[in-house]
Specification:
The complex is a heterodimer. By secondary structure, chain A is α/β, with parallel strands linked by helices. Chain A contains 6 helices and 10 strands, in the order E-E-E-H-E-E-H-E-H-H-H-E-H-E-E-E. In chain B, helix 2 runs antiparallel to helix 12. The relative contact order of chain B is 0.19. The chains are: A alpha/beta, B alpha+beta. At the A-B interface, helix 1, helix 2 and helix 3 of A face helix 1, helix 10 and helix 13 of B. The structure holds adenosine-5'-triphosphate and magnesium ion.
Chain lengths: 235, 397
């Protein structure tokens, strides 16, 4: 079996303590290959956002193990020295809304990540421009983000998630505000990028339009994950 | 790495410029306040320097001609001339009053001097010195009088023959120099009704109105209307004599008060101007607090409106230090804009103040650092808020 990009075993998350404790994640097990896009589906309150926060290293799990590319980053405690650097270099985030930085132009919104990682400005911008070209928004490279359409902003957000070539991208309802054509475009782009950069992508979604596109789906219910084969329909 | 603060300022430059403008006007007021105080001190120093005197001799137990009323007999200067180290001595009177030009009143300090003696204004902008002993005047330029113009002091008209500058009293009234005799008359002049009244009373006194002594009653009347008082005697010391020693000598032997230039400066600055200085100091404190409140409010609301962006920045791995630095730089940037605006407006409006406003570079530098310190302090609230933002907020529920 090839080495998984993301491997989660026995992940638990309890919010609070004592009588008010909420066990949001009880037993999560996942295994995602590089270049693979999987869906994460579940009813409201099932623990989807909690799982993304744990994987995104903004919330500390209670127990279990997380491995990225075979390296243990969490095992009953964080195993990396600099969690900020982990988020910056090894995880990309895409949200329901693009959440771009309004005072930076399109290029610098993407280039900011390599810059934060210590890359020189010119190199960071060249990398940003490559990604913007791949995502077909290079013609808007020097525009203010407020001048972009919703779909263009979402593509810039995807470029930002890819900027440091992370092995993992976490997408939380990335197609919710888009119509079905644009939603499918975003899914196609995510799949292309996953292929091109060998990135493992987890897409949390309720979106009936895109669910049939996944080859593999994880259902989450009451804090437990169940794996299922998807339709893998073309987009 | 790019400057996040710089980008944000450029992006919302309108907000920054307008806020900076408002704050800048406040700083302009602050700098002007300091300038007004500096101007008062400088006015006092220049006044003393331009008076051509080394020692001011005044009535015992008084604080000198500018600070307290003082009355001396006008022949005391003769006995002062006899003291060792005294080169020249001359009478002077000081009286703040309204004088009348063609159609309006001007408030001035009328100074009675002896032409060619200490007390005469040291520097003329235009015209000439007093030459005749009556009805001529030299005016400080701030009085707004023109050369050749006539002013009425009490019942007499004076012609302005010369103009001088930087001769203003400690309360800011420009000085008007006239011959001593005229000044004495103006200072102690009674109106005609009072003189007639007085004369009638003298005539009714059998002890004074003696039959068979011709001229007695006239002599008494003359002595009553003639003034023999002055406010101060200005002394120049002979070369080689320390003014302090000469002043000490005058104090000891003549039962008079004598002040050197240093003493006078001390009186003017620490006694006369000190209340104004405290007043201005209080203003400065209030303005500093108001500025700090405004800056911290503005920076705080600007930060609150960026909570989402800050959460995203943290999520993608921006260090707390970078975020704090961004907010601090924004506050300092605001302070810088405001300081430039403030310094500019203070310089522009300084000449239009009725009193002299002295903008010292040292004050500007101190002001700059104070503004920067206030802005840095004011940004702490916003920084604390920003550091508390949870990166998980970017992911949402
Ligand atoms: N910070 C928190 N403190 C306490 N309980 C929490 C916290 N965050 C989430 N929970 C609880 O954990 C459970 C899972 O929440 P989570 O937000 O992960 O659900 P979700 O699957 O994302 O739901 P939705 O589809 O509505 O977004 C819920 O019962 C929720 O109330
Ligand atoms: Mg959720």
């Amino acid at each position: 079996m090839p080495q998984a990009a993301i491997e989660i075993s026995g992940l638990r998350k309890v919010y609070g303590q004592g009588d008010t404790a909420v066990e949001a994640l009880k037993e999560v097990n996942m295994r995602i290959q590089p270049g693979e896009v999987v869906g994460l589906i579940g009813p409201s309150g099932s623990g989807k956002s909690t799982l993304l926060k744990c994987l995104g290293a903004v919330t500390e799990p209670t127990a279990g193990e997380i491995r990225f590319n075979g390296e243990t980053v969490y095992a009953n405690g964080w195993r990396v020295g600099d969690i900020r650097a982990l988020r910056r270099d090894r995880i990309g985030f895409v949200f329901q809304a693009p959440y771009l930085i309004p005072f930076l132009d399109v290029t610098d919104n993407v280039a900011l990540l390599p810059m934060l990682a210590g890359r020189p400005n010119a190199e960071a911008r060249a990398r940003a421009l490559d990604l913007l070209t791949a995502l077909d928004v290079a013609h808007r490279a020097r525009a203010q983000v407020s001048q972009l359409s919703g779909g263009e902003q979402q593509r810039v957000a995807i470029a930002r998630a890819l900027a440091n070539q992370p092995p993992v991208i976490l997408a939380d309802e990335p197609t919710a505000p888009l119509d079905s054509e644009r939603a499918l475009t975003v899914v196609r782009i995510l799949n292309q990028m996953a292929q091109q950069y060998r990135t493992a992508i987890i897409v949390v979604t309720h979106d009936e339009k895109i669910i049939p596109t996944f080859r593999r789906i994880y259902h989450i219910r009451d804090g437990r994950t169940y794996e299922e084969a998807g339709e893998g329909r073309a987009f | 790495m790019i400057s996040l603060a710089g980008r944000d300022i450029l992006h919302a430059w309108g907000k920054y410029v307008f806020t900076g403008l408002g704050l800048g006007l406040l700083i302009g007021v602050t700098l002007s306040m300091a300038g007004i105080y500096r101007g008062m001190v400088d006015d006092a120093k220049v006044l003393l320097r331009n008076s051509g005197a080394d020692i001011w001799v005044v009535q015992k137990d008084t604080l000198g001609p500018y600070a307290e009323p003082s009355s001396l007999h006008d022949d005391i200067y003769r006995s002062l001339l006899g003291l060792p180290g005294v080169a020249r001595a001359a009478n002077a009177t000081y009286l703040t009053m309204q004088v009348r030009r063609s159609d309006e009143d001007v408030r001035v300090m009328v100074v009675g001097i002896t032409p060619g003696q200490p007390g005469e204004p040291g520097y003329l902008l235009a015209g000439r010195r007093l030459t005749r002993s009556h009805y001529e005047a030299i005016a400080d330029i701030k009085a707004g009088l023109a050369q050749g113009e006539k002013v009425r002091i009490r019942r007499n008209d004076y012609t302005v023959v010369g103009l001088t500058r930087r001769m203003v009293s400690s309360s800011g009234d420009p000085m008007l120099f006239i011959p001593l005799k005229d000044a004495q008359a103006a200072q102690f002049l009674k109106d005609n009704e009072a003189i007639r009244n007085d004369r009638a009373r003298t005539a009714a006194n059998p002890a004074l109105n003696r039959p068979g002594v011709p001229g007695l009653i006239e002599a008494i009347d003359a002595s009553k209307t003639e003034s023999r008082s002055v406010n101060a005697v200005l002394v120049q010391v002979a070369p080689g004599w320390p003014p302090a020693a000469v002043a000490e000598n005058i104090r000891r032997w003549k039962y008079l008060q004598a002040y050197t230039v240093a003493d006078m400066e001390d009186i003017l600055v620490s006694k006369l101007i000190s209340t104004s200085a405290r007043q201005i100091g209080m203003f400065l404190v209030i303005l500093a607090i108001v500025s700090a409140a405004i800056v911290s409010f503005i920076i705080y609301t600007m930060t609150l409106s960026k909570v989402r962006e800050i959460a995203v920045l943290k999520l993608i791995g921006t260090r707390n230090r970078t975020i704090a630095g961004m907010i601090l730089q924004q506050a300092l940037g605001l302070g810088l804009i405001a300081f430039v605006v403030g310094k500019t407006v203070a310089t522009l409006w300084a000449p239009h103040f009725p009193k002299y406003v002295l903008l010292e570079p040292g004050d500007a530098i101190r002001g700059f650092f104070a503004v920067m310190a206030i802005c840095a302090l004011a940004s702490t609230l916003a920084i604390r808020t920003a550091l508390k933002v949870d990166p998980a907020e970017a992911i949402g529920g």
